[in-house]
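User: Here's a chain of 592 residues. Predict its fold as tokens.
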Amino acid sequence: MNVGLHERAQELSVVAIASNAGAIELMSRTLSQSGDRLSVATDLAEGLLQISSQVPDVAFVDVTLGDGAGLAVLHHIRTLAAHVTVFALTSADRLPLGVQAASLGSAGTLVLPLSGDELLNALSDVRTRLAERRERLRLERVAAASERHVGLVEQVAELAEAGSRRAAAERLTELLVNGIGLLSAAVYVPAAEGSRQLMRVATRGHALDSPAFCDEMELLNYARERSLQTLRLALKREQSGVLLIGRTTDGVDAASVFPLLPLLVAQATTSLALIGAREQSHRGAMKDPSSSAYTFAYFVDVAGREIDMARRHGRRFALATIGVQFERLLSDPRSSEVEPTVLVAEHVLSAVRDTDVLARVDANEFYLLLPETGGLGAHSCRRRVLNELTEEASSIRGTGLVVTVGVASFPHDGGDLSRLLRVAKQRAEASLNSVVNRLNLRDLSVPDLVDALLGQPVPDPSLGARGVECPHYIELPAMDLVGLALAAVSEAWRAGQARVVASVHAGISVGGAVRAEHARDGEGLRFDAIDVSGQPGCANLDVLCVVAEHAAYVLLGRREGNLVRAVHAADPLLVDLVLSKLSLATDLRLND
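Assistant: Prediction complete.
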């Protein structure tokens, strides 16, 4: 394989400017056997045009053409193709022209009639010079690359000075993408001390849909399916994380262009291990120095103890992930010195209980631990946090403030910290694609909101697996709709406590059926039947909202005779919005 590539690299592009039929025939026959490419021009003008367009490796010029005008062409060839090797052709009786050609830069003179050996020897000399030049350039590139690569490894060694593993991982992915030319890179670290679950803390380059939380086998399967490479960041048995990398921008494997990759990985492993040890030794520092939140390390310790107590005593708890992004920052009316994420922490703390634990993970993410809290309480906390941050956005110096909150509860969503964080983070990311945001539903009345959803029956296919949160269109008889509603309520109640709001009206209604089915089943089920049929545009409206320990669900439809056109979705933001609109329409507090 390598031999073939070498041979192709030695093939020459040749232009012959000659009118001698014997010389042309010999060149054509000889060069076809050697694998070189030959172009022939029988006059000087045509020859200069071919040299200009082809930029050949070799040019043979008959200097006797045009009564010696071919001699003057040698100078012009150099201006058209600076690296071309020129050989002069002349007859025995015009040898002085060959001598003059040498003074004008010709590499040699061949006397007509030509022999095959002379021609091959001339081309062999050119091949040797070109190979030497290529090798020199290659060595220069290797030397320059080695210098860059050594510098890159030195920069990776400096990652140990980073303030956190997340900051070090972000810098590492930046160095890999920009320094080596990788299309993408991501770093995973253990989600908690001693955990087998991995948490993605940094990604850069082309968008990766890699999981936010996973175990090592899941990550290996993901990488294999997408032709990515995983490199373990481990010292003996102690794993600091996993590095996930793609190919270079040229489509080749990273190791082929970066031979120091193993050394870089070793340096990165050492740096992350040092930072991890430093974080562990600083666990006594409970508070994040720049905000009122706790440190991530302290959060992991408290969450671990909470999980142990919950398992031992059958207690409940929940957690939330809070992501914030600022598209544009304005001057803060209270203090221009206060960082926006610090103000975010203050507003979140004002919306939660004193016993809740807020930890700052990085500049754009917080984790919130909710002791003695089930799924209903977690959803209530999620609404309070979103409302607080939305109402106080101006004092957080942000315009276009984007907040995502996802919640998970123990044991419904998982039995360990990494699993709970993964579920909460997935729900937070899914909320970005909520129909509430995509269709700008917040300012619509209840009937307009329903009509807007019924006009969008097809879920966005780009959402992929998140399609469960998208409203799905259904059309069915009224009795079947009642059956669907009863099944949703029963499923919610079976998982524990549930909050149900449903509409009632004359005739068969969702709320009437739920009330009749669960008239004697009050424990753990809070049910409100509301009548909005007298409101404008709501005469034929059917509504069901369910908030359960493990999920939130909404069903909205319009009756048309015996049929109902409806949409339903497991979208917490849509449930919140519908409950808030119904609260305004009925003067009831339905989303408490």
